[in-house]
Amino acid sequence: MIGVVQDVFENDHTGLVYLFHSVTDADYLYYCDELREIGKYYPNFRYLSCVELGLVPQGCRGDPVNRIIQESFPKLSDWKIFLCGARDQVHKIQRQSYLAGAGMKDIYFEVTKI
């Protein structure tokens, strides 16, 4: 996902970019400081980290990422969606994004082996 973010800004993308980084445990968060720093240089970039279990560090959300996305973006038509993660979570957010109006051709995903 870092590569996607890098590509967006190397190609002078001017629209809003949201990166939701979800982990089950805070120990699995990485590049948080660097991603927050990107937001200082690119005002159209928003980074939101989500910790679903255990202690939730300051600056993170403690809700399931699919709920946060649904609350934040009830309508996703005309958006490009890039997903990466465990099969169940990716497919859940893919379906949710489609039902919120995103076209299937606008939803890109990679399932990882976790």
Verbal overview:
This protein is α/β, with parallel strands linked by helices. It has two domains: 16-72, no CATH class; 75-114, no CATH class. Helix content is 35%, strand content 23%. The protein contains four helices and five strands, in the order αβαββαβαβ. The protein has helices at 2-10, 32-41, 65-72, 87-99, and strands at 17-23, 45-51, 60-61, 81-85, 107-111. The strands form two sheets. It has a three-stranded parallel β-sheet with strand order 1-2-3, with helices on both faces. Helix 4 (87-99) links the parallel strand 4 (81-85) and strand 5 (107-111).
What are the salient characteristics of this protein?
2 domains; alpha/beta; 114 residues; three-stranded parallel sheet; two-stranded parallel ribbon
Kindly summarize this structure in a few lines:
The chain is an alpha/beta fold and 114 residues long. It is built from 4 helices and 5 strands.
